[in-house]
Amino acid sequence: xxxxxxxxxxxxxxxxxxxxxxxxxxxxxxxxxxxxxxxxxxxxxxxxxxxxxxxxxxxxxxxxxxxxxxxxxxxxxxxxxxxxxxxxxxxxxxxxxxxxxxxxxxxxxxxxxxxxxxxxxxxxxxxxxxxxxxxxxxxxxxxxxxxxxxxxxxxxxxxxxxxxxxxxxxxxxxxxxxxxxxxxxxxxxxxxxxxxxxxxxxxxxxxxxxxxxxxxxxxxxxxxxxxxxxxxxxxxxxxxxxxxxxxxxxxxxxxxxxxxxxxxxxxxxxxxxxxxxxxxxxxxxxxxxxxxxxxxxxxxxxxxxxxxxxxxxxxxxxxxxxxx
Length: 324
Description:
Blueprint: E1 4-16, E2 25-26, E3 29-41, E4 45-49, H1 56-63, E5 71-76, E6 79-80, H2 86-93, E7 96-99, H3 103-106, H4 113-123, H5 129-140, H6 159-171, E8 177-181, H7 189-206, E9 209-214, H8 217-223, E10 226-231, E11 234-240, H9 241-246, H10 251-258, H11 297-301, E12 307-310, E13 313-315
Parallel strand pairs: 4-9, 4-10, 7-8, 8-9
Antiparallel strand pairs: 1-3, 1-5, 2-3, 5-6, 10-11, 11-13, 12-13
C-alpha cells in the first residue's frame, strides 16, 4: 500500500519462562504479541494504547529492530525488513528511530551531550566533525535548546531537557519514522505538555510518521490521528481517534474511556470487578472474557474475529456494546 510507510503483518513474539515472569501463557510460552497487524500512513501519528505488559513496547522494539519477532512481517516503505541482517538493515537504521521512556537511562552519564550526539552521527557513517557540527547546530534549536547544553553532562540537565536531547538524537539521522515509547510518562505534568507540543510541532514541520506508545488515554487523544487499543498481546479495537472516542465498540476500550470521562460525557462508566490480570489458558476464547461485564458463553468458546464497524473503525468483539 503506497500510502503506508509502515505495515505490520501477523506479528507474533513469545518469551520463555527464563526470560520473562509474566504474560499470557500458552504451553509454557509467554505470548507478548499475538498475531498483530496494522499500518501507519505517511505523515500520520498512530497512538498505541494499553495496560503495562500488553505488548505495545515489544512491538515498538521489533519495529526498531531492537528485538526479533518469532513470525510475521514488517514492511518499511514497501520493503520487508523483518529478517534483515545488521549489514543489510544499516541503510534503514537512520530512517527508523526510537525515543525511549526514561531519558536518564538512554543517555550515557559519562559523556557530555556533544559527544553523545557525535557518536550517534558517527554510527551512521557521518564521520566528518564539521559536518557533525553543522547537523547538530541545525537541529538543536528545533528542540528548544541552545549550544550551551552541548557542554553539559546528562546529570546536569532536568528531566525535560534530557528528553529534548533524546528527541534530538532521534532527529539527527533525518528519519522518516519515529517510535515514541512512553516519552512523557517519567516527566512532570507541566513538562509533559511542553514535550507533547514539541513533538506535534516537529512532526508537522519534518513530515514525520510516528507510532506513539502510551498507557495514558488523554495523551493519546491529544496527539494521535488514529488509535490502536491493545489488550493481552492483541489489538482489540482501532480506528480514527475521534471515531473510537465517540463510538467505542469494544468493552475494554469503554473501560479505558470510563477512566477519563471528561473527554466524552456521553460515555457511561463501566462497573467492573476488582480483578487482577487473569491469565486465560484457553486460546480459543476472547482475551477479555474474564474481565468483561458483557461476557456471554460464546466469548469463552470462540475467539472473536476482527470486524469493521465502518471504513475507519475495527473491533474484535462478538457484539457491538453500543447495542447492549
